[in-house]
Amino acid sequence: MTRVAKLLILVAGLASMVLFGYSVLKPRSTYRPDVVQTWNSPDEELEYYLKEKADYRRQFARILAEKRITRAELIAADNPELANKAAAVVDSLRARLARTAPAVSADSAR
């Protein structure tokens, strides 16, 4: 290779390393005005809890259902007009948990 070609490859390699380092290390803004955080209303939350289908044999689904029961009770305490709906949600979730026995692993069945 000629001296000019070697110099050109060296300069291109260094330039690419500098651009890569800049793109990785440049400070990023955490403010994103185009992303708007939306929260569901308590009524929408309760509707979601009633309509959702989950496999309550799974440990995660059982834990999530317990948290949703607690959340529904808090909604009932904060919003008296939603107390009946929250009570229905709590009853429904507790019935689903009681109706579905926890999964039994192969080791504990022996």
What are the SSEs and their pairings?
Layout: H1 3-25, H2 42-51, H3 59-78, H4 83-99
Describe the protein's architecture and organization.
This protein is an all-alpha fold and 110 residues long. The protein has four helices and no strands. It has helices at residues 3-25, 42-51, 59-78, 83-99. Helix 2 runs parallel beside helix 4 and helix 3 runs antiparallel to helix 4. The longest helix has 23 residues, at 3-25. The N and C termini lie far apart (73 Å).
Brief summary of the model shown:
The chain is mostly helical and 110 residues long.
Main sheet makeup = none
Following the backbone from N to C, one meets helices and strands in this order, namely: HHHH
> β content, as a range?
under 5%
Which outline best applies?
A: elongated
The helix count comes to 4
Helix/strand/pairing class, anyone?
Answer: mainly alpha
Question: How many strand units?
Answer: 0
Q: Percentage of helical residues?
A: 55-70%
Distance between the termini: 73 Å
* Rg over CA atoms: 28 Å
Q: Give the rounded overall mean pLDDT.
A: 85
Instruction: Identify low-pLDDT runs.
Output: none
List keywords for this structure.
mainly alpha, elongated, about 110 residues, 4 helices
